[in-house]
Description:
mainly alpha, 2 domains, 55% helix, globular, disordered N terminus
Amino acid sequence: MLFNFMLGFGKFHRYAVAASVGLALSIGLGISLGVPEAIVARSQTRLAQKDFFREGIYKANRAYVLSQSARNAADWNEVAKLWIQAVAAMQNVPMRSSKRALAEKKVVEYMRNFAYAQDRAAISSNLSYPTFNSDILDEQLELYLSYIESLGVPDIMIVGSSRALQGLDPSALQTALAARGKGNLKIFNFGINGATAKVVEFQLKKLLSVEQLPRQIIFADGVRAFNSGRSDRTYNEIIRSPGYQRLASGIRPRLSSAVLEGNFARENSLENDRANSLENPSAKESSYKQSLEDGKEPLWLGAAAEPALTEAIADLWINRIDANGFKPVSEQFNPAIYYRRYPRVAGRYDRDYESFWLGGEQDAAFKAIVSFVKSRKIPLLVVGLPLTWDYLDWDRSVREQQFRQYMQRLARNLGFAWRDLSQGNLSRNDYFQDPSHINRYGAAAVARQLAADPRLTWPRAR
């Protein structure tokens, strides 16, 4: 029941699943976890007599059959649970078994299928609210609300564009701060692709209620977020969205309680369906049961799958947004390879620096952010994220210097913390996905550098 219970909490279940999987695998492997040795011995005897390979194939076939009729998040949630149960069974195939080598391959295959099922579940949103014309904003908002319901309001929130989303790892920052005696702080990355100062102002002042605001904010980004000379497509899409209109009417986003209730109701229904299916199997179930008797299993996402679907699974499994809102990207920037795939764009033609102007609406929005957080006694740290030396040609370097001077002046006059990480040892290529976007290794390095800064202050862990 614990396993099913943890997987029933709407979208946030996919981030809790690792803990429940570990529990299931530890029990299956006979790790005592404080259980009396006699009980462990009896359990291990029963486990030794059990055909885990057969059970794994059975669970995988169940997942396959259910996937053929899955239509909503609850359906795909059940598919995901079955794939994890199949993984646990295959992991428990004895090390000396002749089936162990194949079982290990099945674990990898089933985990890919599990990842796909999870993301299919996420497509059917638990957020009963119209879209903000931004998939990433819709997803991050739902995750943030689920995070609050599950763990409470974070101590620290990271905001900014895709550079922040993948450029500052909240888990690495939490670990680094804890190592320095700051306690176990909760940190969430609410980065949004294309975010600007205007978008961040919208997030903090309109989208979230006062009760949903963190105790400290890190605005991690660069020139693009503050350049009023360029068109702000993301903000313009948001204010034209159905979600914005709903928000303007005074109705704030919230998670649908009906979804959570439906998950538990469906759990009972599915248990009955499983029992009935054993007595009155459908044609599909009869087919896979026969396959099971023959020692076979149908291909779901194996070599026979459509190439486009296989590629989609790979994309979903890699670079997924994690439980803390962070997008870990593993690719490492290699100029020799990168510029064979993409043209080199000079700074004078870079739209991020288009009609460069550090005044105007973005400047006004940022000053409004500073005023707002000061009124709420929420400390603000602005971080200029690193860029590669390869990216910083003469035109970009001039604009970046102007941006640093602009931020230094505002920090001094308005009273917020500013840290420039755009130069120095964090600019190495292996810390980047591309010339201007940090990868997971760089994101961890940024977190460590901020945590090590003795001049920065952090909230006390509660």
